[in-house]
Automatic annotation (TrEMBL):
SUPFAM superfamilies: Chalcone isomerase. Residues 165-366 form the Chalcone isomerase domain. GO terms for molecular function: intramolecular lyase activity. InterPro entries: Chalcone_isomerase, Chalcone_isomerase_3-sand, Chalcone_isomerase_sf. This is Chalcone isomerase, subgroup. The chain crosses the membrane at residues 59-77.
Length: 385
């Protein structure tokens, strides 16, 4: 009798309990809403972190680039100072004992004149203003292979067993990089016998009726030679038509090598030849190949001498020597190139154009030209003698 009543009570209690399904549904919805809000909060936080990271990264990269440029410039400057200090140390004896002035030109009556001195053996020398190579010879003798014999009284007096005499026109320093590292000194020489031809061409360019130029005409010639286009046209015509024998004397002021010198010459020739289709032939290519082959050698110590000579027909002769202006016979021929276009482009690399190998040398050469054209045509060679 008691068992049915005991079973009925739990059932009645169970029936009186509230339903749980709606409660579970509401809890599920609230959980989803809370999760979505949390996700939105996390995404904003991540975006802020990413933005801050990108800003910091950009700032660090910019600071690193600026620091790199500053350190490069500072290192290059310190290197240049160290090299200059070493050169001064190596040449302390020369600087202390030699009375050689540091200026290659002096100003007289508003005009520049080369400073000409005499060494202990009576040879005429011109100061360069640089301690490593303090002087250049004012005149030098070149005995070139295949050079013709001298004719006429002046020619006989400027030619002897040592070769043909050449007279210095101007000189300057070749520098590289934006901090101006000095590489070599270069001087431009003209055969003393041929100065009259150079005088005649330059004077007639300004005044066809004159034999010498007055100051205003000299200013006009100076301006023409400094102009990139007109200067290149003038020198190009002189080299092709005047028949003046000339040479460039190159003396390194620090140790270098033949490959470095060759690369500079080749780049200069290619930069000019690429602008004219007249150089796109096999003959010029062969000339360039021969020229490059001359420089398949080793080191070039400072103070040695490299000579680039051009004869009346434009044939190029490359010589290498000891560099002592007192021992001018100690030179060996490295090679010759008959194509006059190659030597002409090499000469223009120093004499004219928008960009020359040495701006100081070009300016110095122009001032040397002014010394020639202020004198009557045909008298300069006699005065040099």
């Amino acid at each position: 009798m008691l068992r049915p009543s005991r079973l009925a009570r739990p059932l009645a209690r169970a029936s009186t309990r509230p339903a749980l399904a709606p409660v579970c549904h509401r809890a599920f919805l609230s959980q989803r809403a809370s999760t979505r809000a949390t996700q939105d909060f996390d995404l904003n936080k991540l975006n802020n972190k990413r933005r801050d990271y990108e800003q910091n990264r950009t700032a660090f990269l910019a600071a690193g680039a600026i620091a790199g440029v500053i350190s490069f410039i500072y290192t290059a400057w310190k290197l240049k100072k160290a090299l200059d200090a070493q050169d001064e140390k190596d040449n302390a004896a020369v600087k202390c004992d030699s009375p050689i002035p540091t200026e290659a030109f002096k100003t007289e009556a508003g005009e520049k004149r080369k400073v000409v001195l005499h060494d202990d053996e009576g040879r005429e020398i011109v100061p360069t203003g640089y301690s490593v190579v303090p002087v250049f010879p004012r005149t030098m003798d070149l005995d070139l292979p295949g050079s013709s014999s001298a004719e006429g009284p002046i020619a006989a007096s400027v030619s002897n067993d040592a070769g043909v005499e050449y007279t210095l026109v101007g000189l300057g320093m070749r520098t590289v990089t934006f901090i101006g590292i000095q590489v070599y000194l270069v001087g431009f020489y003209v055969a003393t016998q041929d100065i009259e031809r150079l005088q005649h061409y330059l004077v007639k360019k300004i005044n066809p009726l004159a034999t010498t130029l007055i100051p205003s005409e000299k200013d006009a010639l100076r301006k023409a030679l400094r102009d990139a286009t007109e200067g290149e046209q003038t020198w190009d015509s002189i080299l092709q038509e005047a028949g003046c024998r000339s040479a460039f004397r190159i003396v390194p002021v620090r140790d270098t090598d033949f490959h470095h010198l060759r690369d500079g010459f080749v780049r200069a020739v290619q930069a000019r030849s690429s602008r004219d289709k007249a150089y796109n032939d096999e003959a010029f290519g062969a000339a360039m190949k021969d020229f490059k082959g001359f420089f398949n050698r080793g080191q070039v110590p400072k103070k040695k001498e490299l000579l680039l000579s051009r004869d009346a027909q434009g044939k190029l002769v490359v010589l290498y020597g000891d560099g002592d202006h007192k021992q001018q016979k100690d030179r060996s021929v490295m090679g010759t190139v008959s194509d006059e276009r190659l030597s002409r482009l090499l000469w223009l690399n120093y004499l004219a154009g928008n960009k020359v190998a040495s701006e100081g040398a070009r300016e110095n050469i122009i001032e040397g030209i002014m010394e020639f054209v202020e004198r009557p045509v045909g008298t300069v060679a006699t005065q040099i003698l």
